[in-house]
Amino acid sequence: MDKYEVWAMVACMTLITFLTRGFFLLIAHHAVIPQRVQRALRYAPAAALAAIIVPDLVLGAGGTLNIGLDNHRLITAIVTSLCFVVRRGVIQLMLIGMLAYTALRFWA
């Protein structure tokens, strides 16, 4: 692939990215989003985060489901979540999570 093909590919990908992401900004003043959809979209970031994190917590080696006591990541997530509900401190959350995970790895 020569340098012109690379630059053409970069230009095409830039155009495609601009069109797909900018399309909604270009028509935003014409589109009317119902109130019900706006309320539902508030949960999108939490749903996306859960979709990324949960498989990492519950899947073991080889993609098998592992929700037992030998799954240190899942136990750490549960302990950390409970501590966050009680304390509400982000720095404390990180410290407790790292301490719980380290303790489970060394002593379990």
Question: What does this molecule look like?
Answer:
The protein has five helices and no strands. By secondary structure, the protein is an all-alpha fold. The radius of gyration is 22 Å and the shape is extended. It starts with a helix and ends with a helix.
Specify the structural class: mainly alpha
Average residue-wise pLDDT: 89
Order of helices and strands: HHHHH
Q: What's the assembly state of these chains?
A: single chain
State which percent range the strand residues make up.
under 5%
End-to-end gap: 53 Å
Point out poorly predicted stretches. Answer: none
What is the overall number of helices?
Answer: 5
Which key terms come to mind for this protein?
108 residues, mainly alpha, 5 helices, 0% strand, extended
Report a brief summary of the structure:
The protein has 108 residues and is mainly alpha-helical.
Topology (SSEs and partners):
Blueprint lengths: L2 H24 L8 H7 L2 H15 L13 H16 L2 H18 L1
Helix pairs in contact: 4-5
